[in-house]
Amino acid sequence: MDNRYLALAQPGIQGLAAYDPGHDIAELRRRFGEDRIVELGSNENAHGPSPLARQALERAFAGIHRYPDPLGGDLKRAIAASIGIPRERLLLGNGSHELLMLIGQTFAGPGLDVVASQYGFLVYALAAQCAGARYVAVPALPMSSSMPRGHDLDALRAAVGPQTRLVYLANPNNPTGTWFSTGALDRFLFGLPDHVLVVVDEAYIEYSTDPSLVSAVSLLERHANLIVTRTFSKAHGLAGLRVGYACAHPDLLQVLERPRESFNVNIPGLLACAAAIGDDAHIARVREDNRAEREWLADQLRARDLRSGPSQTNFLLVDFETPATPIESRMLAEGVVVRPMRGYGLPHCVRITVGDRGENLRMLDALDRAMEAVSLASTA
Ligand SMILES: Cc1ncc(COP(=O)(O)O)c(C=O)c1O
């Protein structure tokens, strides 16, 4: 590669590696066929979206020659009604990924620290580096040598210093599946200095069935430095539309409005998400089906002597207690996609999305063959 262009980039970008998508999924779909590939690598929703969202999508194409509403007024009204906050407290994004980056770009910068947990979602480090800020990863609570337990809120609090501008927390977290209670978050937020903004990323919150974990949206009135991000990509089953939202103090959102691309949410996204968020019955069904299937899958793994961590999400982090690459690559050769965790510093683990029963059975079959082949190879 000719480094001429890299030398022209700002220092934060020079130190970055481009996003690793895992696999060339389009190529894998062609190779195995849409009906044979099993995609359990990206925490998508096997149930798909609400039928109301599908109907809205059909209507969306009639107006596709227009620009989308840059204010996203109708979608904000629908979200506000659903989660019970004023719409001035909402900002829309091209997926919550865009918002996580926008927050970094707006508030972090050279000479400032961004604090997050070890095994926190990778985008937080990316947001810090892009802004030229220092990324401080705080050790997670251990469970075993290779399986993390989750965010250590006391240690995260202790890592906050005069240079800290942002703290990113994921609740529940990807890739660990772990979570902390809303009460613990409330205590964490109290007494933080005014110059520290706390982002609570709730991409998986709709999957939670633990009564101690309710959305941090309920804490917004008490903490003016809190930003909650949520998404339509997971439980709402609309990952392909790229829509997320941030909830925060209206004056804070006015600052984020400045660098926001005016038409960052497209017409199909605005219409389908407004329809989806009103379908509480669909989300309740998704949550319950996911819980039951996740428990079944964890039992199936346990029966194979494989441990998975506790999870309030639509995925399990599975510990092989031995390097997982040979197993994961054998599964991939059969068209079963799961997510390797080397990039997170967890080479013994893979993250497996909870699919529907058919997908999970096919994944387990491939897993059995892969484990047998690996154990034969090691005894040969
Ligand atoms: C914890 C977490 N936050 C945010 C995102 C980004 O989601 P999206 O940009 O699709 O809203 C993801 C996606 O996997 C995630 O796992």
From TrEMBL:
Its cofactor is pyridoxal 5'-phosphate. Pathway: Amino-acid biosynthesis; L-histidine biosynthesis; L-histidine from 5-phospho-alpha-D-ribose 1-diphosphate: step 7/9. Gene3D superfamilies: Aspartate Aminotransferase, domain 1, Type I PLP-dependent aspartate aminotransferase-like (Major domain). It comes from the Bacteria. Keywords: Amino-acid biosynthesis, Aminotransferase, Histidine biosynthesis, Pyridoxal phosphate, Transferase. Its EC number is 2.6.1.9. Residues 37-367 form the Aminotransferase class I/classII large domain. This is Histidinol-phosphate aminotransferase. The lineage of its organism: Bacteria, Pseudomonadati, Pseudomonadota, Gammaproteobacteria, Lysobacterales.
